[in-house]
Design brief:
Chain lengths: 252, 243, 571
């Protein structure tokens, strides 16, 4: 029965008695989010190679003032705040980012770096997370544009056709729609805010709407990642084609 | 017979150390069985809380190999046997003795929450559709594992300002009760510090009742608080409708 | 005087924070009394939290033909007519209101299509009668009561064990207790005390009960001079888990059978056809428990000595929705998926019908100012309790006890405290620290459980019971010598050494009463007297302390009024 000194770990970054490699959870987030941010920043400032034929990169949609009549910089910069804000205030990304980048906490039951007083989302700037639903409204608008772009990608010089780019853009807008419509704020608006479905006006249909958005919402994280990859890839594909690095394959 | 080593915290509020005990393993044995073996044969004064031994009462919470768990539902055969199994008291609460901690803070928080109050004139007909959503919250067995793991309490010790996930679950159960007539949004925002939660979901990960605390209780409550305090449009609507 | 203890004063002191204790405290509070509630565990962890199947109340939401009379008849028949008829009547009459009250305090039961409280079938109940919340009805009940209590402002003394009732020339004056956390002492002054301490199952090895069920309340009342009644009636629930060893005895709710679960033996035979072809699996608990026991004894048991209970013929989603905690319990603890295959089950010690003898209307015991409700009280269930009748019992008689206790407190003057009683209680409690021997309370407890399991189990004989009484005497001597290690700070070994005394007292009461009752009735089965004896239908066994020793008496069963007899006779 040998006694050994106390094993209660002091709280410092990474202190834990967990046996599993807890950092495995945040590593991919750091790599993917980091990589995506760098790529997206570069592409946003590039201001070129964003369209080819009927294809428009989702980073640049809706396309505003491409001829630089009044906006001298890359048109992407005009709209980027929308999708960026939507993702940054998304309940899922908040979790992922707080864990991976603020290490607050790095993983469950793992120590945090000692630092100033913690205020969560109660003080500026993080209190702004509460505006998420407005970014959602905006995101719906963006989704409309992206659907328009996707449909346009079926028409090559006025004739119906399908290229690899068509598929890429369509898949992307599907995933983005799933991501957008699995949003927590929507779930609340759809019916979650009701206390009593059976007493409310249109209660049954709102219950059905809430159920559907709950179904999607349970997969929100999955859609968040898939759509992040797809939007990045869609842009990359358009850039490859637009810059002439590869040729778009016409399937139909 | 196979044996395992348990490395159990022994001590009180003044400190202590871990002590290793060898315990024979039986099929299907859980960590609580091992602790009982230690009590019965090796250390009669080992302090542990338990009641039901079936994951129903939420008494036997501790940290097994660094993870907050119910010891009565943690199977020995799920844990690696090549190293000692550490069993420590919950970290977020003051230690009393061995694995027993002072959880009275939770009961004080609970007192702040106004109980159910029916809307006037209800006929007590309730639809199963409304019951289903709320029953998830009412499954809570008050094991306080979510409180233990929540970094707002565990790392930042904001017990004065923060109610903790357990009580967000309780309030979700009241707020979404189809017949409840009260509003607890201001309480959530101002006294129970809902905004301190940064939705990092550790509470959901540890909940033995598999309550989806963050997705189904906390985030919907945050949205309700936004409705009332942060969203200019809904505030305007409310003013127009005279509420 | 330099007191070693703190003192608290209440009009009404309630010992026990389960359903009965909490319901009593709410009622006493509503009467304007100052109320204190003491419990051994944290608030909300009492046994009531584990109740699964439901609350019996003739609300007729599902089977519209149901009414209080049928419920009354079922209860009396289930109890083999040894029940206190007045209690059975009050219980059947009042339980629907008590359930509605819970709902008004925020409980959410499963619903019917029409939005009423849904009710399910249970053993011995003619109609679908059990209001339920999946298989966690007790949790819903205790949380509702607890939250209401907290809101109404009851004072709860958590993790505090009462070890002695204090009296003032025969009437209640208060209670002596210690804080489990610190080991410090506390004396309560009270005009009324309600005992709601639950049962005694921890004296058996295979049991569904927790460490709290050591019969403290009955032992306390007995020491204070109250009468215990019908102690031989200990219910063995037919379906406890049998494998793996660590979970042996953990309850498998009767709701599994209520929802359509089927019992089979090793050969695949649905053996209940032999024992009760009419009610089959939903026969009363005593019958089902004996049937399983007999199957196993005669070599048709399962691999680990039980029977198969199978619900997998029902759709998996339905099982998971209606029996979620059973699903998880088996999945996590026994690696069995109950939606795919059968569970192995066997009898487990579950409930005691006997207890403190009380007046039906007021729940007052034979000691003035001492009340009892819930499992600790006797009378309602007679020789066998029907499933679901306990939770309703807690509400109906918890309320009555609280009411009468508060009224009693208003009526009487403040009792005076007797310091010599306090001193002797303190001495007794702290004695184990000065015992130097090697006897361990855990070892004595293990031996007691083994003894009760083998000699005072489902089937009993004169020889076994006689032997049990002799052995109990030896255990008592060993318990008195048991010492403890360590300090008074949260010391389970020390706690057990007090609990052991209670267990030994109630075990002796059970064995004595069982030895005297030379018949088989309800949960009490004598191999040497396998038949009902009409003479014993008219008698209760009463246990009292006289001149420092345990004495048994017989007391006639109260005659039932004509109109109730007619209800019973109807079919
Ligand atoms: C697993 C299980 C399932 C069940 N399912 C059902 C069901 O479906 N339907 C049904 O009707 N019944 C059911 N029962 C039976 C029912 O739950 C119990 O009989 C009932 O809950 C007892 O309630 P109570 O209020 O009398 O005591 P409890 O709820 O057990 O409370 C006893 C209280 O007394 C306190 N106490 C004890 N001794 C002391 C002391 N010395 N000092 C201070 N405090 C003390 C304890 O701490 C506790 O708070 C079930 C029982 C079990 C074990
Ligand atoms: S989600 Fe919120 S409440 Fe839950 S553990 Fe994380 S910070 Fe705490
Ligand atoms: S919400 Fe879950 S983890 Fe938290 S106390 Fe309740 S049961 Fe435990
Ligand atoms: S919550 Fe993720 S997008 Fe709204
Ligand atoms: S002992 Fe009840 S939950 Fe573990």
């Amino acid at each position: 029965m040998a006694g050994s000194p106390t094993l209660l770990p002091e709280s410092r970054l990474g202190s834990t008695l967990r046996r599993d490699p807890w950092w495995i959870e945040i590593l991919p987030v750091i790599i993917v989010m980091g990589g995506f941010s760098i790529y997206a920043t570069l592409r946003a400032f590039e201001g070129a190679y964003y369209s080819w034929g009927p294809y428009l990169s989702p980073f640049y949609s809706p396309l505003i003032d491409p001829q630089h009549h009044w906006w001298p910089l890359s048109p992407a910069l005009l709209i980027l705040a929308g999708p960026l804000g939507f993702r940054a205030t998304c309940y899922y990304y908040r979790k992922a980012l707080y864990r991976a980048f603020l290490l607050d906490p790095p993983a469950c039951a793992v120590g945090e770096p000692s630092r100033r007083k913690y205020s969560g989302e109660t003080k500026f700037p993080l209190i702004l997370q509460n505006v998420h639903r407005y970014f959602f409204y905006l995101a719906v608008l963006f989704i409309c544009f992206l659907w328009y772009d996707a449909i346009r990608a079926f028409f090559f010089d006025g004739h119906f056709g399908i290229g690899v780019g068509t598929l890429v853009l369509t898949l992307n807008v599907c995933l983005l729609s799933l991501y957008t419509f699995s949003c927590h704020s929507l779930r609340h608006l759809a019916g979650g805010k009701l206390d009593c479905f059976s007493c409310a006006t249109f209660g049954r249909s709102r219950f059905a709407a809430w159920r559907l958005s709950t179904f999607l919402n349970e997969r929100h994280m999955l859609f968040a990642w898939c759509s992040l990859f797809s939007v990045g890839f869609a842009d990359f594909y358009v850039r490859l084609v637009a810059s002439g690095a590869i040729r778009d394959l016409r399937l139909l | 017979m196979a044996e395992a080593t348990l490395r159990v915290f022994r001590g009180d509020s003044n400190g202590g150390q871990t002590v290793d005990y060898r315990v024979p393993i039986a099929p299907g044995m859980v960590v609580l069985d091992a602790l009982h073996h230690i009590q019965g044969h090796l250390a009669p004064d080992l302090a542990v809380r338990w009641n039901c031994k079936a994951g129903k009462c939420g008494s036997c919470s501790a940290e097994v190999n660094g993870r907050p768990r119910l010891t009565c539902k943690t199977r020995m055969d799920d844990l690696p046997q090549d190293q000692p199994i550490t069993v420590l008291p919950m970290k977020s609460f003051p230690r009393i003795k061995d694995l027993v901690t002072d959880v009275s803070w939770n009961y004080r928080v609970n007192r702040k929450i106004p109980a159910f109050e029916p809307r006037p004139g209800t006929d007590w007909k309730i639809s199963q559709l409304d019951v289903d959503r709320v029953q998830e919250f009412r499954k809570c067995i008050e094991c306080f594992l979510c409180q233990d793991v929540c970094h707002v309490l565990r790392e930042h010790d904001q017990k004065e300002k923060f109610g903790g996930p357990r009580f967000f679950v309780r309030i979700a159960g009241l707020e979404m009760h189809p017949l409840d007539g009260r509003n607890r949004n201001a309480l959530l925002k101002d006294e129970l510090g809902l905004g301190l939660c940064n939705i990092t979901k550790c509470c959901t990960e540890v909940c033995p009742e598999e309550i989806r605390i963050t997705d189904n209780a906390i985030i919907p409550l945050k949205e309700r608080v936004v409705d009332e305090f942060y969203d200019p449009l809904t505030r305007m609507f409310r003013r127009i409708r005279g509420k | 005087m330099t007191a070693n203890y703190e003192t608290r004063e209440h009009d009404v002191l309630i010992i026990g924070a389960g359903g009965a204790g909490l319901r009593a405290s709410l009622e006493a509070l509503a009467q304007g009394a100052s109320v204190g509630v003491v419990c051994k565990s944290l608030l909300g962890k009492a046994h009531t939290v584990m109740a699964e199947g439901g609350i019996a109340a003739a609300m007729a939401n599902v089977d519209t033909a149901d009414d209080w009379k049928t419920h009354f008849r079922d209860t009396m028949r289930g109890g083999k007519f040894l029940n206190n008829w007045r209690m059975a009547q009050l219980h059947a009459l009042e339980s629907p209101d008590r359930v509605r009250e819970l709902e008004q305090w925020g409980a959410l039961f499963d619903r019917t299509e029409k939005g009423d409280i849904l009710q399910r079938a249970f053993g011995g109940h003619t109609f679908k009668r059990l209001c339920h919340v999946g298989d966690r009805t007790g949790l819903e009940m205790i949380r509702t009561l607890q939250d209401r209590g907290v809101q109404q402002g009851i004072d709860v003394y958590m993790e505090c064990t009462v070890t002695r009732l204090l009296t003032d020339s025969g009437r209640i004056a208060g209670a002596f207790a210690y804080w489990r956390e610190t080991g410090r002492l506390i004396v309560f002054k009270a005009k009324s005390i309600v005992i709601a301490t639950g049962g005694i199952g921890k004296a058996w090895r295979v049991t569904s009960n927790s460490w709290e069920y050591t019969g403290d309340g009955m032992a306390l009342a007995y020491e204070a001079g109250a009468e215990l009644m019908d102690m031989e009636f200990v219910q063995f629930h037919p379906t406890g888990m049998v494998w793996p060893p660590g979970v042996q005895g953990i309850l498998v709710t009767e709701a599994v059978r209520g929802e359509g679960g089927i019992l089979r033996n090793k050969l695949g035979e649905r053996f209940m056809e032999k024992y009760d072809p009419k009610r089959m699996e939903l026969s009363t608990r005593d019958v089902v428990a004996r049937s399983i026991y007999t199957e196993v004894k005669e070599g048709r048991g399962t691999e680990h000595g039980g029977a198969y209970l199978d619900i997998s013929q029902k759709p998996a989603e339905y099982v998971k929705k209606k029996l979620p905690s059973m699903y998880h319990q088996f999945k996590e603890l026994a690696d069995v998926d109950i939606t795919k295959g059968p569970m192995e089950v066997g009898p487990t010690c579950h409930y005691v019908m006997g207890g403190i003898r009380v007046d039906a209307e007021t729940a007052e015991s034979t000691v003035p100012g001492l009340f009892a409700a819930g499992e600790a009280a006797a009378g309602l269930h007679g020789a066998n309790r029907l499933g679901g009748n306990s939770l309703s019992d807690l509400l109906v008689f918890g309320r009555r006890a609280g009411l009468a206790a508060a009224q009693h407190a208003k009526r009487v003057s403040a009792p005076s405290m007797d310091n010599s009683q306090i001193e002797s209680a303190e001495k007794e409690l702290l004695a184990p620290f000065s015992n130097s021997g090697t006897e361990s309370p855990y070892a004595v407890h293990r031996d007691l459980q083994e003894l009760m399991q083998n000699l005072v189990g489902i089937f009993r004989t004169e020889a076994d019971l006689g032997k049990a009484l002799v052995e109990l005497e030896k255990l008592r001597a060993r318990a008195a010598k048991a010492g403890v290690e360590g300090s008074r700070l949260f010391n389970p070994g020390w706690h057990l050494s007090y609990d052991l005394k209670s267990m030994l007292t109630v075990s002796e009461a059970v064995a004595q009463s069982a030895l005297a009752r030379t018949e088989s009735r309800g949960a009490h089965s004598r191999i040497d007297f396998p038949k009902l004896d009409p003479l014993w239908e008219k008698k209760h066994n009463i246990i009292v302390k006289e001149a420092g020793a345990m004495k048994r008496r017989e007391s006639p069963v109260e005659e039932m009024p004509g109109e109730l007899q007619q209800i019973l006779a109807a079919d």
